[in-house]
Amino acid sequence: MTKRSPSASPEFSVREFFQRFPDEQACLDHIMTVRFGGTMMDCPKCGAESQFHKLRERRVYACPHCLHQIAPTANTILHDTRTPLVSWFYAMYLFCTTRHGVSGKELQRQLGVTYKTAYRIGQQIRDLTSKAQGFDALLAGHVELDEAYVGGRRSGKRGRGAAGKTIVMGLAERDGRMKAVVIPDVKKDTLRNVVLDNVEPGSVVSTDELVSYGLLTDDGYTHGAVKHGKKEYAHYDYRSGETFHVNTVEGFWKLFKASVRSTHVQISSKHMQRYLDEFTFRATNRNRVNGMFDLLVGAL
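== IS1595 family transposase ==
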C-alpha cells in the first residue's frame, strides 16, 4: 500500500483543525503565508528584509524599520468582517470535509451566528470555490458530458423537461477535473458552445444518445455515445481504443440531486451556479482535503 504524504491525505479531523487554527493569530498567520509567503519578507516600501510583526488588536502586520503596514485580509471577504476568523476558517473546513454540502441552518448551529450571517458566509465561500477552480483551463483527455434537470416537478411520468427545473450540464475528465454550468436549453448550438468553451480540441468525448451532441465529430473531437434507451451504459470502441460511458457525470448528478433534496431542500436558478461550483470544486479535489482548504484560503 502506498503511503500518502500528510498534505495529500484526505484525513483532516476536527481536532487537527483546531490544533492548526486555535485562535485569530493562527488564522492571520496562515493568510499571510498563503498571500505573501509568510511574515519574513522584503518590505514593499523600504526594501529591507524584515520580520513583520502583528499590531496589537488590529489585523495588520508592520515592518519594524519603516512601520509600513500590510493587512492580510485587505481586499478579501474577510476585510471588514466582525465574525471571528476562526469561525470563517471552520466554515471553510466544513465545506471541504462534507459530501452533501452545508446548509445555512447548519452553519448557524455550528458557528453560533444568526441565520443571515450564516447564509452570507456560505454564499461567499461558494464564490471562493469558483475562484479557486481556475475555470480558464480547458478540460482535456477523455471528457464525459451529460446534462440534467434539477429542481421543480415533472408534470407527468415521462419526458426530460419540466416547468420550474433548471437545466445544467456537467463535464468531467476521466480521473481529473470537473465543471458544471447552467444552460438555457439542450439545443445543438447551446451544447456545442459549452463544449468548445471548456474542452480542448482533439479530446475524446463521451455522451449519451441525445442528438444535440451529434455535431461534435465535425469540431475535431473523437465522439462516442452510449445508448441508454437500449440499456447500454458503456461500450468499447476498437477503432479508437476508448471505452465510452458517462458514469462519472451521472454519479455526480446523483449525488448533487440527493444533496439538494436532503441538505438544501431547494435551490433557485439564480444561485444554482454557485452550488454547482461548490460541488465540482469538491469533486475535483476530493483526494486532498488539506489542499482543498488551502485553495480556498488562497482564493481570498
